[in-house]
Fold this sequence. Notes:
The chain is of the alpha+beta class and 372 residues long.
Amino acid sequence: MSRTHQQGWVAWTFSAILFIAGSATAWFYFQSASQNDQLNADLTRAQTLQRTTERNLQRSEQEKQTLQGQLDNALASLSQIEAQYETANRRLTQLNNANDDSATQITTLEAEKQTLQTQVDELTEQLSTAQSQLDTAVKEAETAREQAAAAQQTLAEYQTTLNRLQGELSEAATTEELYLAAREQLALKQAENETYTETIERLKTEMAAETEAMAQLENKLQDQLAKLNQEKEKLVTQLEDGTTAIKLPESILFASGSAELNSDGLNSLNVLADALQSFPNHLISIQGHTDSRKISASTRLVYPTNWELSAARAASAVRELLKKGIPAQQLQAVGYADTRPLVEETDAASRQQNRRIEVILLPNQFKTKILK
């Protein structure tokens, strides 16, 4: 019985120890968790404080760099003054060691020393003033940013009001205003129709006059060609696009392989110039054409190829028309060599057909009435 009692006492004691140990462990875990939460909160506050401190440190570093620049400038000036001051002291020492009796120089050096000392004091004072001005500028910048933000907000409010008023103004258009606008459009259309009618009638009149002048030109050229005992052919052609082509055979203008007008060519161009006076509103393109044969050896020194020969013949015709009073701004000279033949070259007659000067009249200066 005593042994059983002892075993029960041991079991109860062991249970009590386990209870105490569990309670202690729970209390220690609770205390650790509370301390951990507190440490996390302290860590968060420390990190926030660190970021704030870093931003303040950056601003302080920028201000420090600005002030450091001003301080460096002041120190540089101060170094120069100190160097001058040292130079003056050395000169004064040399004078004293040499027992120089020049009192005037000593007085001058003392005055320079005093002046340099005054400049040092002034620079020190300027440095202090610059620091004060920097502080004031920082405060003014902060104030300006605040004012800018306020002005931006006010501007946005004004813009909103303006948009609203513009919408109301757009809706305020009356029936009378729309009626007046329609009448103006109708009057404008009527004026345009009248102008178009006048322009069409004028162009018809000009076209009839040009057609008559073209017929007279063809008759004159045909008469001139008949007088020269040449074969009569169609010299004037009216193209579908409104342009007119006048063909002058080489045989009545130039000698073979030459760009110099002969007497018959001069007479023909005189007749042509008189007729062209009736076409002041046209561009007159003088175009030279050759056959496909190569330039002879004797002519090659002057005209290496048919390009040069055709262009030179066109230019000769232009110069003669200028002498007869045709305005220069109406004329142009073009050389096509043998690139635009009229017929296939099979014999001397076909080659002669391709050697020609063509005068192309391009209607490029029609005048229209401007509607005001």
